[in-house]
Amino acid sequence: MIVLTGNTLTIDEIYRVCVQFEKIEISAQSLAAVQKSRDAVERIVAEERVVYGITTGFGKFSDMRIENGDVEELQLNLIRSHACGMGEPFPIVVSRAMMLLRLNALIKGVSGVRQILVQTLAQLINAQVHPVIPQQGSLGASGDLAPLSHLALVLIGEGFVHDDHGHATPTATVLQSLNISPIILQAKEGLALINGTQAMTAMGVINYIEAEKIAFDSEWIAAMTMEGLEGITDVFYPEIHEARGYPQQIAVAQRMMTLLQDSKLTTTQGEKRVQDAYSLRCIPQVHGASWQALDYVKEKLEIEINAATDNPLIFQDGDYIVSGGNFHGQPIALAMDFLKIAVAEFANISERRTERLVNPQLNDLPPFLSPSPGLQSGAMIMQYAAAALVSENKTLAHPASVDSIPSSANQEDHVSMGTIGARHASMIIQNVRRVLAIECICALQAVEFRGTDKLATFTKAKFDSLRSIVPSIKKDRVFSIDIENLATALNPLIIKKND
Q1: How far, in Å, CA of 191 to CA of 313, rounded?
Q2: What digits encode the pLDDT tens for the residues 130-188?
Q3: CB burial readout 265-291, b (16+ within 10 A) else e
Q4: I need a labelling partner for 86 at 20 to 30 A (CA). Which of 181, 368, 417, 423 fits?
Q5: C-alpha to C-alpha distance for 148 and 205, rounded to whole angstroms
Q6: Is 25 helix (H, G, I), strand (E, B) or coil?
């Protein structure tokens, strides 16, 4: 059971809730804070004070006063009108993370929602009710308005949720079957639900979880490639990396030494050649630089997942209510763009290692690792496929955050495009995982030619386990199946079925 406080949620806990379906509950202190901020909203409405989003319209309509009798209609209209999402829905794991992060923000006690709203949201999460949330339509400032509106629709019994087969089914039908009553939104609540960065942050957290796994996988796959090419391990000696001083580079080199420590396939400087190509020799430097970026991204995400990002925020028991801009997604937008570049580099260098494994001019292995060169093509086109994905990543890695376009009649005149950046990062991650799968398939074949009895202990264990997924290449076959099977095996987000 994960206890939510609004301030202590971690990426590991998000994984446990969103991938492993661990239950959640809201701390008593947080519920008390929620009630206190709600009391402040009730006083504002009763006193007919002019406060943005509570007794006024939204965006360019912020100067328009809303009568007390129209407050409920105002909030309902807000959700319906802002539910303009388009395209394919976010994966269920992202939808679930979005719900969790929105709940965690609301229970900080500065948003002015009722206890029944946050309790219902927690109930939906525990019941594995996952909104269908289209991926396209957010500018990443004023919050992820369109995606979060589709999330909010489910709370009011509208919109669609995923069924057990991943198909969209009407929310009302599902809530009725679970005996969960829809919420009738009160003052401030609609705005509190959709004003935030939870779409880009949810996607960002899931991206980070996948990217971290990719970073570790790239090391043992590279280690196996080193063995397949009889690479020089002197390049991992600690003194080299300590002389430069980057902790991440030092750590990669240490892990590579550990992975290869008892290998009989690697060589030393001058034994067979003086130097290896950069894709082997510079693994710590290149991978280490990407790890630096991952560390930056993790730091920003860990702040944002516990942040209050709606507007206005309520402080000092309601005496101070301020309309600010915490909904602006720039910190996450920049982090996602950085993540795109960092993860893409794992594929860039991996594809170059694949080329060295299959190119007979660069090694002494059978050409293209073919069991019958000429008659059978072997891994020739796998390298083509990896090159295509690497090239596609170059387009996707273009930073989304350098763009902005004004909205709401120029009231909202600078936006982050952070959700676009997060979505593109996810696309890159899927491509990179497949590029690594291709390198791994080629490395498995190369070390088999060399002799698997000479493998390091770690890589031998990997070889044995992976051969049940990717059989040895005895003759040409449809390698697309092998690539997809291995990429799936490398994915840390394979979600179990609902209980």
Answers
A1: 11
A2: 999 999 999 988 889 999 999 999 999 999 999 988 889 999 999 999 999 999 999 99
A3: bbbeeeeeeeebeebbbbbbbbbbbbb
A4: 181
A5: 16
A6: strand
Q: Are residues 407 and 485 in the same domain?
A: yes
Q: Which residues pair with 89 in a beta bridge?
A: 134
Yes or no: say if 345 and 279 are a contact pair by the CB < 8 Å rule. Answer: no
**Catalytic residue list contains 246:** no
Q: What's the CA angle centered on 209, arms 437 and 97, to 5 degrees?
A: 130
Q: Are residues 226 and 246 in the same domain?
A: yes
The model's pTM: 0.95
Instruction: Give the 3-state DSSP-derived string for 281-350, with helices as H, strands as E and coil as C.
Output: HCHHHHHHHHHHHHHHHHHHHHHHCCCCCCCCEEEHHHCEEECCCCCCCHHHHHHHHHHHHHHHHHHHHH
pLDDT digits (tens, 9 = 90+) for 106-132: 999 999 999 999 999 999 999 999 999
Q: How many residues does the chain have?
A: 499
Distance CA 336, CA 426 (A): 9
Residue type, 310: D
- Domain co-membership, 333 together with 312: yes
Say if residue 62 is exposed, middle or buried (CB neighbours under 10 Å; 0-12, 13-18, 19+).
middle
In a shared domain, residues 262 and 137 = no
CA angle, corner 193, sides to 114 and 18, nearest 5?
A: 100
Is the pLDDT score of 499 beyond 60?
A: no
* 358 membership: H or E segment, kind and range: helix 330-358
Degrees (nearest 5) of the Cα angle 160, 162, 168? 55
- The three-state secondary structure class of 131 is strand
Evaluate whether 274 touches 239 at the Cβ level (below 8 Å).
no
Contact 423, 94 (CB under 8 A): no
Question: Which of 178, 196, 214 is the last residue in one of the domains?
Answer: 196
3-state secondary structure of 359: coil
Same domain, 108 and 233: no
pLDDT, tens digit (0-9, with 9 covering 90-100), for 391-436: 999 999 999 999 888 887 777 778 899 999 999 999 999 999 999 9
Q: Which of 52, 237, 278, 296 is catalytic?
A: 52
Q: Domain boundary at 164, 196, 228, which?
A: 196
**Same domain? 165 vs 247:** no
Quick one: pLDDT at residue 497? 43
The verdict on 75 and 169 lying in the same domain is yes
